[in-house]
Amino acid sequence: MPTYLYECEKCGRFEEFQNINDDALEECPECSGEVKRIIGSPGIIFKGSNFYVNQDKKKATKSKATKSKEKKSEKVS
Questions:
Q1: Phi/psi class of residue 14: alpha, beta or left (left: φ > 0; alpha: ψ in -120 to 50)?
Q2: Disordered: where is this region (predicted)?
Q3: In angstroms, how far is CA 48 from the centroid of its own chain?
């Protein structure tokens, strides 16, 4: 279930777990005051075993290519 961020004028900001099909809250659960839904950036979760492995392989490949170019330039000089 997604987490929605709301703001009450009296109580401040709070988070609420709701089904995606549920209507937005109209009153604060603590003081029954009016609330507004705050639009925020979602949390990002990277899942999968290959995410970090792929990045490391690209870095290793680039560093090996750079080293081989340096060795070639040393031999030519």
A1: beta
A2: 57-77
A3: 15
**Dihedral of alpha carbons 66, 68, 73, 74, sign:** positive
> Sheet of 12-17: strands edge to edge?
12-17, 3-8, 35-38
Amino acid of residue 8: C
* Alpha-carbon gap, residue 6 to 14, rounded angstroms: 5
Q: What's the pTM? A: 0.50
Listed by start position, the domains of the chain span 1-40
Judge whether residue 41 has pLDDT over 60.
yes
